[in-house]
Amino acid sequence: MDQLLQMVSRAQKLSMLDGSSSYNQVNVDLVDRENTAFTTPWGTFMYARIPFVLSNDGATFQTAMDVAFMGQVNKFVVI
């Protein structure tokens, strides 16, 4: 955290992305949606986007951000 704060301490502008709601923006591949299925009294449902309860949701989100900002990380974007 200290290193992150040092990286942004001299920034003229600062914007923050809410990571907790961003998880819900990463799509689950069509082939893998079956693995997220759950059953309720109203039927069986599958997640279209990554839910918070998956074991690798943090790593998947980190990878998505690294790919999205490739070449810009540590220049003007800190993830």
Describe the structure.
The longest helix is centred in the C-terminal third of the chain and has 12 residues, at 57-68. Strands 1-2 form a two-stranded antiparallel sheet. It has one domain (11-68). With 79 residues, the chain is α+β, with helices and mostly antiparallel strands. It is elongated, with a radius of gyration of 17 Å. It is 29% helix and 8% strand. It has helices at 2-8, 19-22, 57-68; strands at 38-40, 43-45. It has 3 helices and 2 strands, in the order H-H-E-E-H.
Largest sheet: 2 strands, antiparallel
Biggest sheet strand line-up: 1-2
Shape: elongated
Low-confidence stretches are none
Mean pLDDT: 78
Task: Give the key terms.
79 residues; 2 strands; elongated; alpha+beta
Topology:
Elements lengths: L1 H7 L10 H4 L15 E3 L2 E3 L11 H12 L11
Antiparallel strand pairs: 1-2
Compact summary:
With 79 residues, the chain is of the alpha+beta class. The protein has three helices and two strands, in the order ααββα.
